[in-house]
# Entry
Amino acid sequence: MAIKKFVTGNFYDENVLFPAVKKVRRAGYKIHDVFTPFPIHGLDKAMGLRETSLHTAGFIYGISGTATALGFISWALTVDWRMNVGGKPFFALPAWIPIIFELTVLFAAVGMVLTFCYLCQLAPFVRKDHFNLRSTDDTFLMAVECTDKTNEAEALSFLQGLGASDVKVEFKETGWWLGRYDKERKRFEKQTEQAVH
Amino acid sequence: MTAFREKFTVPKRFNTIAFALMLIGALSVIGLYVVYGSSHDATKQARFWSSLLQNSVYFLLVVNATMFFICATTLAWGGWQMSFRRVSEAISTSVPVIGVICGVILLAICFGNNHQLYHWTDTEHVKTDAALTWKAGFLNKTFFAGWTIFTIVAWWLLGWKVRKLSRSLDNKPLASVEEGKKYMWNNTVWAAAFIVIFSLTVMSSIPWLWLMSLDAHWYSTMYSWYTFASTFVAGVALITLFVVYMKNNGYLELTNEEHLHDLGKFMFAFSIFWTYLWFSQFMLIWYANIPEETTYFKPRAYGMYKGVFWLMFLINFVAPILILMRRNSKRNYTTITFMALLIIFGHWLDFFQMVFPATQKDSVPLLVYDFGVALGFVGIIMFVTGRSLSKVPLIAKNHPFLKESIIHHT
# Structure
């Protein structure tokens, strides 16, 4: 995957972070991502992220669950193996509703969890590079992606001026890889050096 | 905090509409009485009383559900509703007014000579009916009258107390954190008291007594929850309507589409909750197929009333789940208003099919008169709510949770 150059800064306060996000965007810098230990209301809007399509996916999974259950039960009980259950009609819809409902929920839930993991690139053995581990604990980390035109020194001082602490230039892998951290780090460090030149 | 309009002045047009609706209601009641109520035929008489019963019980339970909404959110420490809480409070002031009307109608039916509605009031008949004799401990006139009066008075008094607590801060800001804690504790205790009474009445005994006893031989333990869900979703829809009305007239500056979104979620969720209970009741009876239980659904789902029955299902389940599912439709004033109106009408139909198949077995009555009576009750709710809104500040500005509501974000 691609290794890119970033300017990163740490924030400790939402009230500092929000204006900073706004100003960084207005200044024309490209925000790669803001890493926070917990979801912050309104941050996605401030960053200009598009709305997730996870719920649309969930609806489609749910509908396919409904169709699967209804299709299979009605095929099994009206075509393949008709059974007289207490004198009820073969097409006994009310009796099937609970199962149809359960399958709808099951498909939607499992499908959405898997889609969520896919969107966040979370899976066993999938490794991703971290900027600052403290962004999983008590700081908000903003990573600004450097392009060819970015003046690093300017970006560093700009972030610092907005209240970021511990600002630095970092080279990080943006994608994911399979394997273990310790082994990969070596391979990764080599590549980092190559990328500098 | 920016300045906001604290005082609601009732527009002339609002009251004109309210009085016009009340007039329509009064004319409908008179019309019903002339055509049916004054008849000597017991079934025709029952048509008159059924209409009054359906409408008064429905609207009483709906306005009382708004007080339940306040108390439930208070107990859950939900601050988000604080910016429009005065609206819910104002709607709940209709409880004593409609409660008196409803109480008079219920007692008149109970002690009247027409046993078409409540068979169990016919003492001669009960002696020969084993099932009703067995139920006489619950279904008798004394208990009915006592419990009805107790219930309505309890709702009124507890609602009054909760509203008074809310107003007590208007001119007297909380001085310290300790005082605030004490205030919240007081709120919690009285909200809890209301919820206890509410569970003993709306969530259990009252729908059995007022509505289910129309089919005195039939019983369902799910009936009260189903009735509660029906009225609660309509109550939230009513709050939404008033909030939208106030917003459109430039009041409630602190309420925005975030709050509307949550009200929409309540409407969506409780429509599905209602369907869950409705279906659970239906499916168990359909599955077991015991004649004693299926008598309830025979006229409703398969008999003459099946049109109303399935229309109500469409309005109360299919429409909310499809229309309110999207985020944008919950935040849009037009769709949310349309859905709130539809839901209130849908659950009114639900009550129609609870009451009428029990008393009008031979023909489905035309809905015109009943709808007129319903409009009368809408007029009463509009008038009382508007009057209460104009009396107190629109925003409980000293409540400790107000800030939570202002920064509310979904």
Observations:
- Chain B touches chain A at residues 279, 282-283, 286-287, 289, 325, 327, 409 (CB under 8 Å).
- The mean pLDDT of chain B is 93.
- The radius of gyration of chain B is 22 Å.
- Residues 42-75 of chain B form the longest helix (34 residues).
